[in-house]
Amino acid sequence: MSASSLLHRERELAELDRALDEAGAGRPAVVLIQGPRGIGKTALLRAALGRIPGDAVVLRARCHDNERDFSYGVVRQLFDPFMNKPDQLNEPDRQDRSQRPESTAKSPGGYLAEALPGAEPAVFGPDGENGRHHVLNNLFNAARSLTTRTPVVMVIDDLHLADEASRQWFSYLARRLDGLPVALLVTAAAEAADPLTADLGALGHTRTLTPGPLCDSCVAERVSSVFGAPVDPELAAVCHDLSQGNPLVLEELTARLLDARTSPGAPDLEAVLRIGAATLADTTLSWLRRSRPRAMELLTSLAVLGPGAELTTAALLAGQGDLLADEAREALRRTDLIDPGPPETFRHELVRTAVLARTDPRDLVALHERAAALLVRLGAPAGRVAEHLMSSGTTGLDWALPVLRAAAREAAADGCLDDAACYLQRALAEATDPELIQSLTVQLGTVELHRDPAACARYAAGLAVAADPVERARLLLPFAHPVLALTAAGAAVPFAETAGALAATGDPAAELLLPLAAQAVLAGQRTAVRRAVASLRAAGDEPAASDFLGALAAMAAAGGRSPRRAVRLAARCVSGASPAEAGIGVLGAAMAFAWSGRLDEAAAWAARVVRSAQRLNHPGELALALLARSDIAYRQGHLDTALSDADRAARSAEQVHADELVSAATALRMRVLLRRGRTPDESRLTGAPLPADAHPLVRAVVLEARGLVAAARGDHEKALRLFLECGHQLAVRGIANPACVPWRTHAAQAYQNLGEYAAARTIAADPLPGADSRPRPAPVRGPVIGTRDAGPVRLTPSERRVTELVLQGLSNLEVAERLCLSKRTVDTHLGRIYRKLAIKGRAELGAAVKAL
């Protein structure tokens, strides 16, 4: 690729050609190339060197800041090939030289040896100015002697970094080029404060070129040329954005992309951005660190302060005064790493990433600590200060803990729960006072309630150790939430125990007792229920009363014994609900309505809870509300709504890492798909088994879905096992209402598909567990059953099924587990069977049945 194609700089190249032609014709020619580092200056020099005639002598020198103290150091670079070589350049024979004037008979090496014997100012003798002029004149004669046979081109890179003696000679030479075939090609930074470049630019025979950055189309053409194939427009845009049109950076970036085997047509943009960050760090930033250390300090401080920071604040962090800060700011603007602003910001976030990556980690820790202290003094928001505290070491400062707590409150209010949890965890790591640790744990647990219920349960268990029941209740009160009880039944144990201990006190406060009792009720425990019911009147319309009523209504509806009582409790719960929002207690009332057959009311109240959870940005609460609304929509036959809510519930549950709720949402989704005639993949439910302490209702919903999938595939034995296990899980917590999970209907269908019709009739006709569990004396209606005068004995289907299992040798408890009944119900059935058959125990049961 030619330089002209690379640069697309026809005007600059034409100026170079004219300068070389004029130098060859003996007219003075100085070309001054000014601009930020890398923006075409070096490439333009390469282009110029490629256009110099082959017979011309080219002298090159590169200036550097580290060599400014070496007098005539740059001049020595230029004339190094001729130092101490008097016979250089095919001088004329001695006879010709002897006939020439003395001023022209000397070789370049002779002039140089006379001008620079030791390259020290001391050689000038006592008359310093005359001695210096003599050196300058000898150096000029050395340059002129090179032009006797061929033109001379002197190329000096970064003239602004040259030593003072060399700068003086360049100024001396530039004003004496008339009649000499000499061209000066000079690059310099675009600094108006440099007097030498200003003097050169003021000369009539100086051409000043200021190459700008490559345009986006030029960058795209260059990248396409390097890859040898058309490039994706996004890749070209990223390359232009990263390089800012700087040819040197672009060249390095494209070389690295080639080495990484990046596909030009389908690039991995994330990988391209990573390579771009490394390229910036190794090119522009490395140069800035070497050449402009104060500017690099300012840039590092700006990167540490983060988005939204200003260079003024960065200068304070770097400890730079106004003068130094202005100089560093100007240098940064010329590099195109930052936007001119105000406020000045990084042109690309990758620049900030690269700056931080090139900074020593120990320096970063110290800068973040200083930044936090500085921002506190400047009155910055707590969240911004906390970000720096999180990136520093343990500070142990008195002001750090209040800042972290305030930042956590702000983050939680904005819905940034992850940030809030991080701030509080850092505060806990620094706290030493026991009371402060306890307070921080409560605050952190409250945040985790809406972020990670499992972590919240651990914090709650750690706080439930206070000896005083009232103090323990106050600590646990912020954690009392249905999300905690329904994701893990074991999490309700501290609440149930504390509620029982609180109820045993003389006069427990309703605002403490009711929320804890509600947690126990949701987990299927009746601890302190009577005392809590007695406290309802004192609570009035408090939210605690609404939450307890909702939990109580759901428990009553799940038990199935008194649907009317469940509806009354649910109606009382929602009577005080605000039209604009509905607390989580209303969700219990909605489920009570649904399990009592009032689906329209249930759907309306569940929708209110969904809107409230969305407004408060509580994903765990939203997941519960969407699960309830999905189940209600499924019962109503609104399958699209049920499926959509189940999917949303799964996503919300994943946000809070509630695997139990994710499994429940997946089960509801499978149920909808099965009704639509599709057989879903069961592995989504069996891949991650539920924990042992998962709520029985959640386990039952999952077992039901797995059973339905097995039945749809024709595996009725597996389906039956799953349905019976589902019933057992519900019976453990006293959930007997078939409206909750109709496992009996599914089990009866499975028995029928297996050909066990008697078992199907038995399990379908069996009364609700506990509905008639109290033994009652048999009415005297004629002769005692089993005597000679008795009529034919008739056992009910339930009694026949119990009899069959007892005759197989099963114990009462085993019979209860097989039929998903309570042991008390089996005992009641056997008592009735013994009375009907006029026998006294199991030993006589076999013979009595044969005699029927």
* Helix count, DSSP H or I runs of 4 or more residues: 46
Please identify the structural class as seen in this structure: mainly alpha
Please give the order of strands in the largest beta sheet.
2-3-4-1-5
Distance between the termini: 107 Å
Structure description:
The protein has 852 residues and is mainly alpha-helical. The protein is built from 46 helices and 5 strands. Strands 2-3-4-1-5 form a 5-stranded parallel sheet, sandwiched between helices. Strand 3, helix 9 and strand 4 form a beta-alpha-beta unit. Helix 16 (293-305) crosses helix 19 and helix 29 crosses helix 30. The chain starts with a helix and ends with a helix. Mean pLDDT is 79; it is low at 1-8, 87-105, 119-127 and 767-791.
